[in-house]
Write a structure and sequence with these properties.
Layout lengths: L1 E5 L3 H12 L3 E6 L7 H4 L6 E4 L1 H6 L3 E4 L6 H6 L8 E4 L10 H5 L3 E8 L5 H6 L5 E5 L2 H14 L2 E4 L5 H11 L1 H15 L5 H27 L3 H4 L2 H14 L1 H21 L4 H12 L3
């Protein structure tokens, strides 16, 4: 199986070397610009870089289209594909049907979306084992993509057709939305003179500990704080302080707390009366 990439962004700068190191033949990489990718991609023995998209496709059995979401359909429509050739995009949100021009020519299409941050391709390559990838494909292509994923250490999530929007939305909750919550926490500490640097030095170890506990004990098993203890008085204190600052603050706190209350119910430590008091406290003044 010969592999080619169309695009040379940070994802490709991690995936292409990973596939090569796992023993697969990366035959070609096409891109309008190889800067700053060239130093990494030149390390892949036998790989033709800087070729046209058509040339890259002609050299490969499996082609990864790793361009912006808006460009996927255009790129797929500009290439002459062979019947039976495999064409895959690397977007989390775009439906596989964006590759319809390739399918119309007899190619087999699919999706391969790594659940990783690629800000630094070298770090991403090192952290690939243990991360996950979402695969949407059928038959032989599905088997080939699973083989590639397992060879570089990815855990596989199989996506059914039509689920990409919900799937991709959920990844934001697990990644960037966490940063929004930390921003809120820093803002609160800023209000009494603590800098972002000081706040993050204290809060990031707390966040890491929460995630590690969730990995070991599950989401419900990892909750801590006043809701996990059934302490409605502390929750009421939080809400009074937030109301004094800004109504938007209390709105976010209330919505997040209601979802945390769901985990407290799943945990099963609090009785019905305590849970009801917590819910009433959170909803007070809504």
């Amino acid at each position: 199986m010969k592999i080619a990439f169309i695009g040379a962004g940070r994802l490709v700068q991690a995936l292409a070397p990973a596939f090569h190191q796992a023993g697969f033949e990366v035959a070609a990489i096409a891109a309008r610009s190889l800067v700053p990718a060239e130093s990494i991609l030149r390390t892949i023995d036998g790989c033709q870089i800087g070729v046209s998209a058509q040339q890259a496709a002609d050299m490969a059995d499996l082609v990864f289209i790793a361009v912006s979401d808006a460009a996927i359909a255009d790129v797929a429509g500009q290439i002459a594909w062979r019947p039976g050739q495999s064409v895959v995009h690397c977007s989390g949100a775009t439906e596989v049907s964006a590759l319809g021009a390739a399918a119309a020519q007899g190619a087999v299409i699919g999706g391969f979306h790594p659940l990783q941050l690629f800000a630094d391709p070298v770090v991403a390559l090192r952290c690939m084992a243990g991360s996950s990838v979402a695969i949407e494909a059928e038959g032989a292509l599905q088997a080939s993509l699973q083989q590639l994923a397992q060879a570089v250490g990815y855990r596989v999530i199989e996506l059914p057709a039509g689920a990409r929007g919900r799937y991709h939305c959920a990844t934001n909750y697990g990644a960037s939305f966490l940063l929004s919550l930390l921003r809120e926490a820093c803002d609160l500490w800023n209000s009494f003179g603590v800098s972002d640097a000081q706040a993050l030095a204290a809060l990031l170890p707390l966040a890491r500990g929460t995630l590690e506990t969730a990995q070991a004990k599950g989401l419900a098993g990892a909750i801590a704080g006043p809701i996990s203890r059934g302490d409605a008085d502390v929750v009421a204190l939080h809400m009074r302080e937030l109301m004094a600052l800004n109504a938007d603050n209390i709105h976010l706190y209330r919505e997040v707390s209601l979802r945390l209350l769901r985990l407290a119910k799943e945990q099963g430590r609090l009785d019905a009366e305590t849970l009801a008091r917590l819910e009433a406290t959170i909803l007070a003044g809504r």
